[in-house]
Amino acid sequence: MEKQTYFRGVWGGAREVSLPIGLHGLWNACSVFDGARAISGRVPDLLEHCQRLVDAAPSMLMQSPLSAERIAALALEGIARFPDTAELYITPLLFSTGEGLIPDAGATEFMLSVAEAPLPRRGLEVCTGIGITRPAPGTMQTAYKASWLYANAVPARRAAQQRGFDDAVMLAPSGQVVEFSTANLWLVRDGRLVTPPDAGSILPGITRARVLDLLRAAGLPVEEAPLYPADLEAASELFSTGNSGQIRPVTRLDARDMAPGPVYRQVHRIYWDWLQTQTVAALQARLAARA
C-alpha cells in the first residue's frame, strides 16, 4: 500500500526519521493521534478529526504546534498525491520529544500519514467473553485516541482474531457493553436503534456523533442507553460505526449468524447520502471561511 508522510515541513513516501533515544513519546507513550478518511474525493468530518487531535493535546500535557485548520489543509495536500478514486486513511499524530517523566508542552512534534486503505467490503464477525475490559471511568483519558489506550484495544482485537473473529465486544468493569475494540457499537432492539452512552469507558466517536445527528434529523427512533450482554443476544441487528469501516454490519456474533437488516441499510443510506456532500471543495470553502 502506498503511503505519504509529512514530517518537519517535508512530504515524502514512507521513510525513516531520526529521533532522540530518550523520546518521551516512546518511553512513556506520550502521543495521541486521530484517524480520518478520504473516500473517492469525499472527506467526511476531516476538520472535526483534526480539531479533536488539537483538543486532545492539553489532556496529555502537550500543545499542538499546528491548528486544526492547518492540519486539515496538510491532509488535503496529502490526499492530492493520490488518484481521485483512492480510499485513504489519514493519521495526524502529536508526540512529545522531551525527556523525563513529565512532558514539555513546547517539545510537541507533529507528523501526518496518508495511506491507501480500502474500505472493508464484508460484514464484521465479533465475539464476546475475551476477559479484557475497557478502563473504568476516571482511570484513564478515553475521550481521545491516546496511544496508551491501544495497550487495551490491541490485545482484545488479537484475542478475538485468535478465536477466528474480526473483533471483540468490549465491556466496562461494571459489566455493561460499551463498544468494539476500535469502533462504536449499535444494535436494534424492538425496532429502536440503541448505542451505549458516553459514560467514561468509550471513545465517543466522531462518526458515532455524526450518525446520531443524522438519524435524529431524519426522525428515526434512536437512544443512548446502557446495554448488557443479554441485549446483544436479543438484538435483531448489530453494526459498528467508526472511521476505519464507516458503518459496518455485524454478520456473526459468537456462534450466531446475522445478516445486514433493514434498519442497518437505512442508516447506511442516510449516512452515505450525507457523505456525498463532504467534498474536498466543500472543506476548502470551510477552511477559507476560517482564514
From TrEMBL:
Name the enzyme group at the top EC level. Answer: transferase
Per the record, the similarity remark reads: Belongs to the class-IV pyridoxal-phosphate-dependent aminotransferase family.
Q: Does the record bear Nucleotidyltransferase in its keywords?
A: no
> EC annotation?
2.6.1.42
State the protein's name: Probable branched-chain-amino-acid aminotransferase
Q: Which UniProt keywords apply?
A: Amino-acid biosynthesis, Aminotransferase, Branched-chain amino acid biosynthesis, Transferase
Per the record, its GO cellular-component terms are: cytosol
Report the Gene3D superfamilies cross-referenced here. 3.30.470.10, D-amino Acid Aminotransferase, subunit A, domain 2 (3.20.10.10)
- Catalytic activity line of the entry: L-isoleucine + 2-oxoglutarate = (S)-3-methyl-2-oxopentanoate + L-glutamate; L-valine + 2-oxoglutarate = 3-methyl-2-oxobutanoate + L-glutamate; L-leucine + 2-oxoglutarate = 4-methyl-2-oxopentanoate + L-glutamate
- Organism the protein comes from: Pseudooceanicola albus
Q: Pathway it belongs to?
A: Amino-acid biosynthesis; L-isoleucine biosynthesis; L-isoleucine from 2-oxobutanoate: step 4/4; Amino-acid biosynthesis; L-valine biosynthesis; L-valine from pyruvate: step 4/4; Amino-acid biosynthesis; L-leucine biosynthesis; L-leucine from 3-methyl-2-oxobutanoate: step 4/4
- What Pfam families would the database entry show? Aminotran_4
Give the function comment from the record.
Acts on leucine, isoleucine and valine.
Q: Which GO terms describe its molecular function?
A: branched-chain-amino-acid transaminase activity
